[in-house]
Amino acid sequence: MSLKEDVGYIKNELSSEEKFIENFVKGERFFKKYKTLIIAVVVILIIGLIGFTVKKSIDNSNKHDANIALSQFLENGDEKALETLKNKNEKLYEVALFLQAKKDNKIASIELPLLKELVKFQTATASNNIEELNSLSMQNDFLLKEFALFNKALILVNEGKYEEAKKELSQISQTSKAYELATLLNHYLLTK
Predict the structure, then answer these.
(1) pLDDT digits (tens, 9 = 90+) for 12-21
(2) Mind listing the pLDDT tens digit for each residue in 25-77?
(3) Contact between 189 and 158 (Cβ < 8 Å)
């Protein structure tokens, strides 16, 4: 029996070695057949990785330069820093223009959506423009919607339109930061 077991063991070993060699030969054939494709994919991956790394490095450098330029502009009013900011980061450039216009009590033409809304709100509040405040408060995604409603109510109170002001104040949500102001104005309106 021992001889039969030894013969069986040797057959299994030869069979597994044959399978290993057979798989190796298949792998070698596959590699030879698709050699150029495999090399091309590896080269493309390496180039892509290098490109991604370079782009990330350039973006970080631009971000750093833009932050330094913004700081220089805000501290010194340096026009060269403003030009650098315009080239490096358009959004920070618009923020700088907005801050400069606010400092100079002017109105800046800005394309950044949030700052554009803020400029509209400031302009409408400064000019007591109820129509503009109304259009801003009708926008569901307006950042200062409740404050626009409060300012509209305040303008209406100054014009003596107390019932309309109460109606505007009732639209302010209890979870809003403007709710406390609305409550104070409502208490004042109780006497009117």
Answers:
(1) 666 767 777 8
(2) 888 888 888 889 989 999 999 999 999 999 999 999 988 888 888 888 888 87
(3) no
Q: How far apart are CA 81 and CA 65, in angstroms?
A: 9
Does the model's pTM come out above 0.70? Answer: no
Helix (H) or strand (E) holding 139: none
Cα gap 63→58, rounded to integer Å: 9
**Domain boundaries, given as residue ranges, for the chain:** 112-192
User: How confident is the model at residue 45, as a pLDDT?
Assistant: 97
Give me the helix-helix angle, 90-103 and 79-88, nearest 10°: 140
The helix, strand and coil proportions of the chain, stated in percent and rounded to the nearest 5, come to 80, 0, 20
Contacting residues for 147 by C-beta, under 8 A, at least 6 apart: 121, 177, 178
- Alpha-carbon distance of 102 to 64, in angstroms, equals 25
pLDDT band for 11, please (50, 70, 90 cuts): low
Please, what is the end-to-end C-alpha distance for the chain in angstroms? 114
Three-class SS of residue 167? Answer: helix
Q: Which helix (H) or strand (E) holds 184?
A: helix 179-189
